[in-house]
Amino acid sequence: MNTAMTIGGAAVSAAILIVNARSWWKGNRELKALVPYGGGLVTGSSWTLCIGGALGWVAVQAVDLGNKAGNKAIHAATGANDGGTLAHGSMGALTYPGACAVLVMAIVGGIAWKAAGKTDKKRMLGGVFSGLTLCATAGFAQVMAWVPDLYNTVGEQAVNVLNGGLPL
Predict the structure, then answer these.
(1) Which residues in 39-59 are b (16+ Cβ under 10 Å) and which e?
(2) What is the rounded distance in angstroms from the CA atom of residue 121 to the CA atom of residue 103?
(3) How big is the CA angle at 89 (ends 84 and 95), to the nearest 5 degrees?
(4) CA 24 to CA 9: how far, in whole Å?
(5) What is the number of domains present in the chain?
(6) pTM for this predicted structure
(7) Cα(139)–Cα(22) distance, integer angstroms
(8) Which domain holds residue 131?
(9) pLDDT surpasses 70 at 146
(10) pLDDT above 70 for 1
(11) Does a structural domain hold residue 64?
């Protein structure tokens, strides 16, 4: 990703993450309640691996939007100016089958979005935004380094099944 995440941008993304974690914690703490936000987080994270394509473009635009919003909010609330950027992160790379798996899951995510209620749509969108933006940082990208492996494995297994092999 070419756009570096600013401290202010990361603050906005972290706030979205915290708000979602808090609402889950204050609720029934059911695992299924984490799915909209968590699924969005993994989805957004995976799009950061798609540089050169439309999903990668969305990732770059989200980082830019987050940076602008965060820097403006920090300045308006505290008067502080430009805290600088954070170390750039990368989770790894997708194989071609992994990239196919990302596209298929983006389509499945779109179908889930259409079927979701208003609250879950907000959580999904917050998760996608957090994944898109926080994975631009070295620390969060390191935490999410399992994402490309997941998609690459799913893609390879799908190719194996389509070639007549049995799934593992």
Answers:
(1) bbbbbbbbbbbbbeeebbebb
(2) 20
(3) 155
(4) 23
(5) 1
(6) 0.92
(7) 22
(8) 7-162
(9) yes
(10) no
(11) yes
